[in-house]
Amino acid sequence: MRRFRAWLAVAALVATTSAVAAADLTIWWTKGTNPQEDDALKGVVALWEKQTGKTAEVSFYTTGDTEAKVVTALKAGSPPDLTFDFGYDLAYTPTWAYDGLLADMSDVLEPIADQFQKGPLQSAYLLNGKTNKRAYYAVPWVQMTPHVHYWKDLLEKAGYTEADVPKQWQPFFDFWCEKVQPALRAKGDRIYGVGQGSSTSSNDPFFNIHLALNAFGAQVVNPDGQLQISDPEVRKRVIAALDSYAKPILSKCSPPDAVNWNGVDDNVSFLNKKNVVVMNPTLSIPLSLQAKSPDVYRNEIRTVPWPDGPDGKPTPAMISVKQVLVFRDSPHIDNAKSFLKLLLQPENIGPMLKATGGRWMPVMPKLIEDPFYTQTDDPHRAAMVRQFTQVQNVPYPQAYNRLYAKVMQEQLWQKAIGRIVIDGWTTDKAVDELSERMKVLLGS
Amino acid sequence: MTLSGAALLQANSSRKWLGSGRPLLSFKEKWALFFLMPFATMFVAFVSYPILYALFLATDRSAYTRVIADPIYARTLWNTFLFIVIGVMLKMLLALGLSSFFVLPGRAIRIIAALFILPWAVPHIPSILSIRWMLNSEWGMINNLLFQMFGIDGPAWLTNPSFGMASIITVHIWKYLPFWTMILVAARLGIPKELYESARIDGAGSMQQFRYVTFPAIANVFLTSTMLTTIWSLGDFNSIYLLTGGGPMERTNTLATMGIRYAFRHADFQAGIVTLMSALPILVPLVIVLTRRLRRNADA
Amino acid sequence: MQELAFRPLLRQAALIVLGALILLWTLLPLYHMLILSLTPVGEGFAGKLWPDAPTLDNYRIVLTQDNYYLSRFWLQLGNSVLVAFTSCVIVFACSLTASFAITRLRPRFAGFASHLALVTYLVPATFLAIPFYQVMGSYGLLGSRWALIITIATFATPYAIWVLQQNAGSVPRELDEAAEIDGASPWQIFRLVYLPLMVPTIVAVGAFAVMLSWNEYLYAFLLLSDEDRITLPVMLGQFLSDDSAPWPLLMVSGVLYSLPPAILYFLARRYMAAGLAAGSVKG
Q1: DSSP label at A216?
Q2: What are the backbone angles phi and psi of residue A148, rounded to the nearest 5°?
Q3: Measured at the alpha carbon of residue B132, what is the angle toward residues C208 and C246, in degrees to the nearest 5?
Q4: A76, A344, A396, A381: which is closest to A209 by C-alpha?
Q5: How far is residue C245's CA from residue A93's CA, in Å, rounded to a whole number?
Q6: Is C2 helix (H, G, I), strand (E, B) or coil?
Q7: CA distance B50 to A146
Q8: Nearest CA in chain A to B151
Q9: B-chain residues within 8 Å CB-CB of C118?
Q10: Of A302-306, B102-106, C59-63, C179-183, minimum mean pLDDT range
């Protein structure tokens, strides 16, 4: 009898593990850089559960992991109902929409289309190759553009002032490498000038390299979707941009580990003052100090405009619109839609974005007009708003050619930088390899 | 349920057993079938099905083109070769050498042996992450000490491709050396003492004792162990993934991490399988030879 | 005379140096884990040999789940325990029966069955991750802890069968025969003769199964999703992607997570050594 009871206990224990909760809505979301971001989403989820009486299950992953989980789940035919990751719009959405893998979100977006900015809305209006028709296959919810940050206190420690920082592209980067870094090192600090990430395990370098390409006027894909990398003028500019990008790495002005930084290592390195300058696609770096060290946040970290391109013109802001996706094979498409309708109501998404501390820009004019963005005395958010409003806004090449998503998936640009900084190839040869592969991927 | 099922089976088979005609399966064989059922179910559902599925995925011919066209693939093969040849050889030679130390008598040696096993007993994830942090070129303990003591920037242990591979091999050895050392120690402790005594009477020094007594006695174990660890090292994912993630720019992948990367980052299951299958020319012969060796040893 | 006294001394000194080197090599990463776990969270980047102000506060934070990443520490540790325990039960159920059939009942297909187990034992688990993911999907088990439990049991069972098979020889066959003459059924022999006499080996294979499960990262990451169901290693992996990088807390979790297998090993050491010697590579 005692043995029987022991077995019963084992059986009960085993039974509890098998209870895979069949939630009415499964959400796979990329973790925020602070708990408030995740809590803000959970708040909306709780509201949805309360309103509908249904249950939702939210899983948070780190950015590369969300992609990996979704990509494989999709392949296995068991995708979540709803998902967000930074990489989707640039690496997957265009081709997933074309292959008919995404659910049509038109009935969510069309009734509220007038609440959106035109550009972000347009970025979700995608061609389905199966039906040969366009529809809204993604739900835009925020937008972002890369920023430049530096440590003001380190600059001053090196004996310079903010006025000394050059405003032109190459002089700007050379200043940190040739003036600031040696000055700091002379004081015994093991600090690098510029944190120039180029790893294939992070998406950040993709953003930053494209910003450099644009600064140099290298339009790899033209608005008609044609690959132009073999055009001699474009190629010349591409080479110049990559040379400039690789320079801090080759001149040992970038932390040696930057070639293998994952999505947050750039944040970690900068926040721990291992390098003076860093480029990052959202305001996550200063924001992680906002609550802990408000003084450092306001007075020691600077978010500045990008230096002007070599032609003297302001460097355009490269905008990417982040999307929430629902899949054709998602088990609860209707629940996902009802959740999105709730999320997109300004009174829900507005506070949710504020909870991120203004890490990125809303996509709805009504929200952007909020004094939180327009009349802020927050130095970083003000700089972000200026990026969006005062310089030319340019989309990534994926907007012109959906196949360019594969260039990001294969991280071809980072690999080209790798050829230059690791294998010691000439930029010319690296661009040859890059062009060849790009032609294959874009079928031209 | 199982008990009544067993009883039924027994009743059935005893009847046949008592009967005149020779049954297809003997009484004991029917029971054996019954006892093998759990393992057989597991084997069919979770071993043969996945293997068949993998073979099915590998029939995609375009995947071979995709993999071979990837410039990283050649590098990955080379890394795998380095990992296996240097990693396994170094590890087994060290294990052989250290086994001489651990067979010595003495309390101190017992204590060192108990601590020495720790890398193997401690789970991979915290220990390898600890090493990752320690080897970080910017803020890791090793480079900081180098900077403090000699004022030099230490090497990029994890983000220079050559140092990265060296670090990976070192971590792999750190993790698995204890296991194989203990195997060899166990084998050496099994050698009859009389053999050494007679060798000593014949005037053999310690080197000669090792050469003429120890090594012949454990050569078999050594060879089997080397083959086993070669196979398992091919499948070592953690030492690479947790340490360098295969970077910088995919320069420190082996077939194991590359295959997983294709499948779970690029959603290309076929390419993933094809990548892993590149190890079959080593894996299959080793498995065949080992199966024979182990069975022969077991029967002997 | 002098030389004779000198040589053992030299040998002694060499052994001491060697022992010290072995300890340094073995313990450095573990020492690093320990000191980082005692370092205040903000100072994890100092790279010191010993923290300026060691603190146990990190342990308090982890044990009381007072950090965002660790808010489910006990639950996830519980998952690890549950997975280890349940997979161990399955390993026993499959391997004890199979090894009994192969070694005691000796059917004509015993060789075949043992061959299958051996071949499975030799295949590296990583090589099957891709089809395993798909297969678990087709069984509808993705996201369930069962998927991980079954995976671990699948990879641990062949080894267990092999070791049990090796050690079954130590149970005298005469006992079976005596029991058979007394009218015992094979089931009774299994339960009353085989199991009790195999206890040392059972302890060894159980310990191995638990350690295998405790180590699993790749499959746990692939097969589990929900924060409430993941095992602790998956959570530890997530630290890699946090910019505030509370690595001292990661190391605290690491130290705590390392304790059970280390203790288990020292408790079962004698049995495991026998299992190793006999099972994995019997000369």
Answers
A1: T
A2: -110, 130
A3: 100
A4: A396
A5: 31
A6: helix
A7: 44
A8: A188
A9: 291, 294-295
A10: C179-183
